[in-house]
């Protein structure tokens, strides 16, 4: 197959850009062919659980010296672990499950990876080919089920097809806009004898991702950028996926334009950089949200104008022209028309833009952003991120997360669950490097953090990995701590324990007259949710639960103990550590744009509407 050449980058696979090992022809089973193919494409870690239909593959897997299998406790954990592995390493993550319920348990992490453009290959066993469609035991049409949430999927009923399909699956997952690919293999295809040939010839005539942008569009974009008075570089996860952080910084410093990074792009541009305004969106910083609203040019790179960023779409950035660069042409114009559309890989786009902008400067075309920066700096000074202190003697969740970031540092990898703790982690941990922030952005999957941290640590064993989790999220997938303990994957888990489903409780506080229906986690149905139950009624006890799963369990309840407990956890590296941080339950995430409202209605804190001092408010 042919596609525009691109320089190698993280995420490339042998199947994508280079031949595999020297051509070999051997007779073996389809199962042996599958494991040999995984070795050939460079897969070194598989997260999975055996079962009847996939069992033939597990026998030759036992003999592989190149592929490590990690036996998880739930298939959802396998899928999120593959995602965490891929996000941390830039390589394709791999998970494996059996047919029926094994395969359907992968649906949530597959959907999660699809929404966040993460390259994973999910391999599932299927009932024997003659039984497909008969409602056989543990049969599920996993290809049909996942068709809307995979980049592509395959049903393999012929053992001879396995090497080609695996090569194509890894190529599709890693190139263009990354995403999940499913390979469903019938049991008889795994059991039958075949001739293994590698390298394989792939044939994907309809799949030719455009990586090199059109020169005319680059020139038009550069002209808009150098003539704008109030531009914003609106940076999404596509820049991070393209490993284009260096090129982004060059363009930003060349132009002097402000930068906002979406939830999925955190770390691609240093939080400490003076041109960084923070994260836009529902819980973004006031300067970032407002800059987009007041801008005359949105220079959009690898972002998709999702509803959490735009708020009420028809009121989003009403005065701005739009340059929209994305490797997926389907995203351009989907939510907001683009004045200059650019299809291409973010690193290629940025590299060409740097040249084009410099050419405009050399020709004497340059705008002055001084007045724009005066306003931006005033907003940064007036509306910084902050939080109210906790009641005397209690821990503030923001303080806990901020202190973890300060003590652990920017070299670590942080994986967050979904909810208040996710937003606080994005706000109060300083991210200076790409691939250090892992979270479920598009799907918002509770239970993501622990298995994703496990996958990240498996792929980056020498890097500290912390899961910032809520007590609600933690109770969905904490069984994977057993996997971590038994496989020498010493992650740290900070459970931000407010005794409730915090983000839902926040909405109940703001929009449902403080009627806390079914959001209190450690009390029975008689509890009205208005006061925390007695400390002795905590169910479960996370310290005891963690110790039962082979981890070190710690608890922190007082502000004066915070540093000592975090440092104690940092010093333990022979097994996982779980810290139960007991925090007060009424903390809220601010700033906030209420769902369905305009970003102009952002609240810096409860009942605090920013005044920008202009006639556009």
Broad shape = globular
Which runs of at least 5 residues are low in confidence (pLDDT < 50)? 1-21, 532-536
Number of strands: 20
- Alpha carbon gyration radius: 25 Å
- Helix and strand composition category: alpha/beta
Cofactor: Mg(2+); thiamine diphosphate
Protein name: Acetolactate synthase
Domain Thiamine pyrophosphate enzyme N-terminal TPP-binding: 28-143
Keywords: Amino-acid biosynthesis, Branched-chain amino acid biosynthesis, Magnesium, Metal-binding, Thiamine pyrophosphate, Transferase
Characterization of the model:
- This protein is 35% helix and 16% strand.
- The protein has 24 helices and 20 strands.
- The protein is globular and about 75 Å long.
- The protein is an alpha/beta fold.
- Residues 1-21 and 532-536 have low confidence and may be disordered.
- Helix 4 packs across helix 19 (449-459).
- The protein starts with 13 loop residues before the first helix and ends in a 35-residue tail after the last strand.
- The strands form 4 sheets. A 6-stranded parallel β-sheet has the order 3-2-4-5-7-6, sandwiched between helices. Strands 11-10-9-12-13-14 form a 6-stranded parallel β-sheet, sandwiched between helices.
